[in-house]
Design a protein that fits this description.
four-stranded antiparallel β-sheet, Immunoglobulin-like, single chain, three-stranded antiparallel β-sheet, mainly beta
Length: 150
């Protein structure tokens, strides 16, 4: 069975995800599919974050961004990615049929898990992807104190 709306429009999965995102924002709750698409549409840059044994790795898609225009800060377990993306035009006033890529300043703040060491951060930019690796802090172990008899 195919669902058709009053104007003959056939909804797609993206339409349902957008509706769910709008409902999430309205009620400020997460639905069971939150891990599939929990970021509001149009959020830039899109990221993937994964935890490994000794580090957390973040990949941020930054196509069209000059790496010298990227500003990274890490403070209080929040990683901030700021920058500017310029989309070159031919210099004349352009008439778009569709424009989904924006140009201008952007900023994205990402909460990080506890236990990371801000001194162990590396960032590399390659092929439009910014790879950020943040090492985990050494676990604080109790100091062993030997007792001498005497």
């Amino acid at each position: 069975m195919q669902v058709r709306w009053y104007d003959g429009f056939t909804p797609t999965f993206n339409d349902f995800f957008r509706l769910r995102d709008e409902l999430d924002q309205l009620f400020d709750i997460g639905l069971p599919l939150a891990d599939i698409r929990s970021v509001p549409r149009g959020t830039f840059p899109a990221i993937n974050m994964q935890e490994e044994k000794n580090a957390v790795t973040i990949q941020a898609g930054l196509p069209g961004v000059d790496p010298t225009e990227i500003d990274l800060t890490l403070e209080d377990n929040v990683l901030t990615i700021k920058g500017n993306r310029t989309i070159k035009t031919d210099g004349e006033k352009t008439s778009y049929h569709r424009r989904e890529r924006f140009s201008g300043d952007f900023a994205r703040m990402v909460s990080l898990p506890e236990g990371l060491d801000a001194e162990k951060v590396e960032a590399q930019y390659r092929d439009g992807i910014l790879n950020i690796t943040i090492g985990k802090a050494e676990e604080k172990k109790p100091k062993q104190i030997s007792v001498t008899v005497g």
